[in-house]
Amino acid sequence: MSQPNTVVPRPRDPRIDAFRGLALIMIFIDHVPGNPFEYFTIRNIGFSDAAEAFFVMSGVAAGLAYSGRFLPQNIARNGIWYGVAPIWHRAWVLYLVQIFLTVWAIAIYSGGALFFDIPALITQINLRQVYENTQAALIGIPALTHQLGYVNILPAYMVLLAVTPFAIMLGLRQPWLLAAASVLMWFSAGLWRLNLPNFPNPGGWFFNPLAWQLVFTCGLLIGLSLGRKERFVPRSRLLFGLCLGFLLLVFAWRHVPGVGSFLNHQMARLGAAGVPFHLVSHDKTFLALPRLLHCLALVYVLSCSAWVFRATASGGGAPLRLLGRNGLLVFASGTLLALVFNVILAGAGGAMPYPVVLPPMGIFMMLAVAWIFEAVSSKKPRTAYAAAP
């Protein structure tokens, strides 16, 4: 009888866990608005933010973790379900976490409204429908069509995981066909404003899976190539220079007086001339082109820099790797902490020292949760990291 465990674990790339951990920290900081630390997150140096980083790293991790199960010899030996089952099980776990976080978000903001006597809290983060249109909201929450603020990234991720088995099977055979199909879907979603329904509110999902699948697919293709110890996009001095130059241009666009207003005006002129809005805007729902290009340029520059591997593999990168290894647990913990801290800040009126003290406290608590989880998981083997890129 053949043995089902035919995928040999490979050493983990420290960059994946470290950058995923860094993205989780930035998401947490950005979800506690009004604190001074948010000026140091990625969204303040460019167009993209930690959400794009989260989707890219999730795609890379999925490509590395699951691609071996879809190799022809493994499918022939164990069947297709051997590859599909763990991915769909992960999507189901994400669904349960999403419902858990949503229920607690309602409880936290409702408790804050009572404790601090701030009725306005139950009108924030898209809670109004829960109280004013409860019957419809109670349908929308489990159906994932009604999503609360700060608790709306996992639904898109689980939709993408649901189709990941098919993407991996295509990507292993025809990676550039998968890339072309992904770009076509992204472009079509923006051109015709395609999105999933947002019942009972009008409009669609804030993280539109039809658009955000592109950045996830880019990560997936990177992960599939890393599984073969290759690069999806080869190193090129010319491409590195173009990406670095674009990152510098975007930084000037954001921070040099006059540059941003001039370039935004040119984009507005292109939009008025009929260029599709998602090519000449900074829209997040449809993953507008400037955001996408900034994210991909940053990924390429970092992936080509040897110092990045050394830094993430060093002792100083250990806390980030710890967070990244336990991404879902850390994300859920950080989301709950951010919701609690937002209520506390509302009750304190944003008075000092809360905006300065709460974010570092939250990061420390996220680290503690990840450390305790690994400490009590006695059956979990010690993570082995690669010694070279």
Automatic annotation (TrEMBL):
The keyword 4Fe-4S does not apply. Keywords: Membrane, Transmembrane, Transmembrane helix. InterPro entries: UCP028704_OpgC. The chain crosses the membrane at residues 53-71, 92-116, 148-169, 176-194, 206-226, 238-256, 288-308, 328-348, 354-373. This is OpgC domain-containing protein. The lineage of its organism: Bacteria, Pseudomonadati, Pseudomonadota, Alphaproteobacteria, Rhodobacterales.
